[in-house]
Amino acid sequence: METLPGPGATTAVAAVARSTRTQPRSPSQLLSDAVTRAGLWERLAERAEGCSGEPSVLLTPGVSTYGDAATAVSRPLVEELIDLLCDRGYRNIAVGGARCGPDIWLAGQGDPCHRLGYRERTPRGNPYRLVDLARDVVPVGFPAASVLHGSGMSRPWPEADFRVNIAKNSTHPEFGYALCLANLLGVLPQTDTHHHYRARRDGAEVVAAILDVCPPDFHIIDAVVSSHGCAGAQVGRPLETGTVVAAPDAVLADLAGALLMGVDPVSSSLTARVLQLRGLPTDYLVDGDLTPYQGWRNPPRFLMESIRRLHPDGRAHRLFSAASWRVEPGEAEVTDKALGRLSRGLTTLLRGADENPVALAMLCTTMGAAAAGSATVQAWRNGYAKERIRRREVSLAVDPRAYTDRDFDRIIEILRPVEGIVDALPADAWRMRWQHVGHAILFGCERTVNAPYAEFVRRVDICRSISYMTDYLGGRVHVVSRDTHGRPTRQIERNIYLAQPNYLAFYGGPPIDVCKLETIAYGERSQRISWRTVHSPNRSAEYDDGSVTCTDVDQGRRTRIVIRVRQKFTLPLSWQVFRPETRPSVRDPLVRDSYRRFFTRSLDNFEAHYEGRPYRIGRPWDGCDDDQAAELPTQRLTDAVRLVRGATREALTAGRLHGTPGPDGYRHVAPGDVPSRFRLLEEVRETLRPAVSGFGTGLWEALGRDRNPRQPL
């Protein structure tokens, strides 16, 4: 019989230790077996050899703040691991809870580790320290291409010699399951993880940034007693599964954990995205039984899809995250009373949906309606309220080391024949040229502005040309090389735009998200930037190549801007079924109109930037503090109810007669003697006045822009 080779020294092993009816094992036995087979002690010993003193070990167990101990990692299991470490001579141990929950909406609850019974000493007497991963933030060197560039982490994390990430085995209503990757969102310093690491940034890119710069060295999944059902990470539903999973790689650990739940690992949007960004180890092995848990319930697919359609930067998604925390009478004080009532109703549905078909139908219907409403609001903002859309903070999404100088030099070669065709096409009345070629669109336009060329190129940086395009939401630029004057000559850029045309958002059209290689050339009488698309993270574009050239006209007294592009974007599914390429009489007018609007406004933006006028759409995140970000619609409802009650109480307790009786038999009332019983109406009127007048002004301006597309936004 042929013998298969065993795992090598560099093989990443995901060890699965299980307790069965025929071979029952205690949690301590499961933990010891799993970490030993996964190579924890060998990796620790290797790390200790490079330390001058006693190596420090940081444990980051998930300490869910949703008010249910069943959703957090078992404290006895963590303290058992501390005992195992101390038995092998590692006594410099700290525990920092990975917060996963709406801490910022709670008042006076204290540190989650203390609430779960951590007392800095194990039952066997081994000491450990409790550290707060939200304090003492220091830089950790996230590169310019990272979504966390400029951010830091709590000092115990980068200074630890060995980091162990411990996650609870639980389901999640959005991701499907929440294991080691999801737990890493809780080790970051900002308390409001939803605002900073889900809404402001993409959660998967945040996790990938941690794994790239300062990753954990080992991962453990506590599945001795798991939490399953529709929302096991928020609403505890314990199930004895008698399992511990250990691995040196987070994606590998989550892969094994997902298979034990009986689901496709990439069904989680978080795992799928991190897997796309990083992949699995080059050499890995799963050691153990992956038979799915008996009696396990995963979230319904419809529920997961509905919650994913709630935009993370919207109030509906934030409200669902906050309301998933169970408020028990007398257990916790919530400053937002309306949120507390909503929480009790939602968590009741989440608890009952696993057994009661009526509760499941009500939950799915509610979340489906919320998703439809959220998508409609977002689509409406794309076309009619762009100033209310949040700009995007993203990573570069590609590895700059994967591209050579030859890849940049080929951009001009690829664009030369395309630009030749564009220049040969006839121009319309707007001096625009376009033509369909192989389902892609070749387009060109130009404008001569009354601005001296030297001054124009000084104010309008050619390197930032793509950010001057209309409906630009954000992106990231990584400079690869510069000339002797310090100007970029090669760079990689990721940029995001609203769905184009904007009305495609009503049909589920995604934003345009593309990564491009760019070359920039500087001449005495012209400057040019050329780009080629190399990746689209959301598969919204197959081609988005082109160039922008600025040249002097009339001996430098004016400047001409020339744009040439080749584009092929992905249509929403409903439009793909419609097959617009088979109906050119319908397709062509729509394409002409959308391109005319987009590039007319883009050229307007170049002029606006030269003149110093605002033109960017959306709201930046920098002007939004944590208190403003944490505000929910329920808080305003709570304030309104409090105001109504106060005004009613004041009106009912006020005396019926006011003033001083006079000799003439009348009561003489001075100003202020009679309290107004309509103060509430006055406050409501003053509150609504800016909104009503602002809506009318905005509507009038929008109508004016529709009449004159060249009017600046």
Describe what this molecule looks like in 3D:
It is a single chain. The chain folds into 3 domains: 31-292 and 301-386, no CATH class; 400-611, Alpha-D-Glucose-1,6-Bisphosphate, Chain A, domain 4, CATH 3.30.530.20; 654-707. Strands 1, 2, 3, 4, 7, 8, 9, 10 and 11 form a 9-stranded mixed sheet that branches. Strands 12-13-19-18-17-16-15-14 form an 8-stranded antiparallel sheet, sandwiched between helices. Strands 5-6 form a two-stranded antiparallel ribbon. Helix 1 (27-37) packs across helix 3 (75-87) and helix 13 (337-352) packs across helix 14. Mean pLDDT is 85; it is low at 1-6 and 104-108. The longest helix has 29 residues, at 679-707. It is an alpha+beta fold and 713 residues long. It contains 21 helices and 21 strands. Strand 20 and strand 21 form a beta hairpin. The radius of gyration is 30 Å and the shape is globular. The relative contact order is 0.08. It starts with 11 loop residues before the first strand and ends in a 6-residue tail after the last helix.
